[in-house]
Write a structure and sequence with these properties.
Belongs to the cystatin family. This is Cystatin-B. GO terms for molecular function: cysteine-type endopeptidase inhibitor activity. Keywords: Cytoplasm, Immunity, Protease inhibitor, Thiol protease inhibitor. This protein is 18% helix and 43% strand. It contains 1 helix and 5 strands; from the N terminus they run βαββββ. The protein is globular and about 40 Å long.
Length: 98
């Protein structure tokens, strides 16, 4: 991975699911809809001043959303912030920077 670039996509981990669980209400607000299912499937990261997580989330049926979540550096509290949501995604849509 080059500095500032995104890593290869990989299967979601329990840590990534925990991030999704914490971000779900914010994602629902941005998407203006409720999600009955919110299961992280794959993700990639980008190291910046903190870490950006780009996460593909299954939200039911054949529908997916992509989340962009920023985690600040530890000295800044390691807080999570939802920076973007892409809706109407499919299983085959690649996850990456947006």
């Amino acid at each position: 991975m080059k500095c500032g670039g995104t890593a290869e996509a990989k299967d979601a981990t329990p840590e990534v699911q925990q991030i999704c669980d914490e971000m779900k209400p914010y994602a629902e607000e941005k998407a203006a809809k409720k999600f009955e299912v919110f299961a992280a499937k794959t993700f990639t990261t980008q190291v910046v001043a903190g870490t950006n997580f780009f996460i593909k989330v299954h939200v039911g049926g054949d529908e997916f959303v992509h989340l962009r979540v920023h985690r600040t550096l530890p000295h800044a509290g390691g807080k999570l912030e939802l920076h973007g949501v892409q809706t109407s995604k499919a299983h085959h849509d690649p996850i990456g920077f947006f």
